[in-house]
Amino acid sequence: MTVVIGFEGSANKIGVGIMRDGTVLANPRRTYITPPGQGFQPSDTARHHRACVLDVLQEALQEAQITPQDIDCVAYTKGPGMGAPLLTVAIVARTVAQLWKKPLLGVNHCIGHIEMGRLITGAQNPTVLYVSGGNTQVIAYSEHRYQIFGETIDIAVGNCLDRFARVLKISNDPSPGYNIEQMAKKGKKFVELPYTVKGMDASFSGILSYIEEAAHKMLLSGNCTPEDLCFSLQETLFSMLVEITERAMAHCGSQEVLIVGGVGCNVRLQEMMAIMCKERGARLFATDERFCIDNGAMIAQAGWEMFRSGQTTPLEQSWITQRYRTDEVEVTWRD
Amino acid sequence: MAGAAQPLSFTLTVPFPSCLEAQIAHDTLAPDAEPRRGGITKQLSVNRNILHVQWQADEARILRVSVSSFLDLLSLTVQTMDRFGPPLDSNL
Questions:
Q1: How far apart are CA B91 and CA A274, in angstroms?
Q2: Residue B13 in 3-state DSSP?
Q3: What architecture is domain A126-288?
Q4: Domain A3-114+292-328 falls in which CATH fold?
């Protein structure tokens, strides 16, 4: 038996998860929620994480009903993400690893999403769409790397949705994306927006600028409702994501799609992807908000795979890094 | 002041209950370097149960930010030791 504890705090969620050989023993999480119209700033987010990380850790240990002696490895998010929140969580991971005399393991956040998605869904060798507030990538495994086939050339798709929510002062509780999804269900009119796919890459900043500029004018003139805008934005963004995913699948000859990352729990995105998969005779795999949204268990799970394949991170090399590409990691745990 | 020959410096001395805890704090706080070309350097060392930190900076503004965020992290590692310590005996 191998037990790994994972610490995640690269954005506005702080989570501690404990995994034992593919079983989630505990996965508590807290979210830093800002008022409508406001994003989360690094220093405020770090303050939030500092205030609750130790409570979340205690909760995880209690829920898992284990003692520190039972743990084999302490995994934490090395990057990518916001510097101050990443560092806050790394400090706690380094401290407990030393207190408990356990090896430390720095995990790439994107790899955490992929490995947790594979574990939960049982997808064998999927084309992965990783969509969140900070990342948008189409990934496929080849030659001991998660290769990036397509990605955003500017902002992440979730960042586009979050910032649109700020324009309309949509609540950030539980998340702006969730509230956009609910409003979009009531949208009736499709407003045409720019559509910007370039090969297997996509661009979202132009769409955001367009809708930021146009939203209030259209709403004031009564041309459309906020719900129509939510609906139109989702349809446009998600069509782009489906298109780049399909292109990568065709390129790789893949018959599986796995959606991970916070935007991945959007049911409309899953529906649209399912239609494409059906047409191609492919299978779609997705998870719910417990595992799509950042959590500690995903870091523990990637850590479990890495640790079992012989990797650890010496303390003096345990620095955090805001930039850390998915394809920098050598995947030593897959054939 | 910027451009002055003599850089600003700041020294911090933190006593811990034991040598081991001072070493844990050091190894927890040391891995993350100050940004290169940031106009600031930070050096950590341990002498018995005392953690020493020494900063040199070109500007007071940069020094203040670095020291302030360091103190937040120092406080977090101390709190973590208080709640999840004492350190396990390595012979167990």
A1: 55
A2: strand
A3: 2-Layer Sandwich (3.30)
A4: Nucleotidyltransferase; domain 5 (3.30.420)
CA distance A301 to chain B (A): 23
User: Is the CB of B90 less than 8 angstroms away from the CB of A101?
Assistant: yes
Question: Residue B37 has what pLDDT?
Answer: 76
CATH number at residue B22: 3.30.310.50
Contact A317, A78 (CB under 8 A): no
Predicted ipTM of the assembly: 0.94
Q: Determine, yes or no, domain membership for B47.
A: yes
Ranges for all domains in chain A classified under CATH 3.30.420.40: 3-114+292-328, 126-288
Q: How many domains does chain B have?
A: 1
Indicate whether B17 belongs to any domain. yes
Q: Residues of chain A whose pLDDT is less than 70? A: none
How do A256-260 and A127-131 pair as beta strands?
parallel
* Among A321, A307, A276, A329, residue whose Cα is nearest residue A129: A276
Say if strands A3-8 and B40-47 run parallel, antiparallel, or are unpaired.
unpaired
- Of B26, B28, B75, B78, which to mutate for an interface test with A (greatest number of A Cβ within 10 Å)? B28
Residue range A67-110, pLDDT digits in tens: 999 999 999 999 999 999 999 999 999 999 999 999 999 999 99
The Cα B33–Cα A313 span in angstroms is 17
Contacts A92 to B, Cβ<8 Å: 76-77, 80
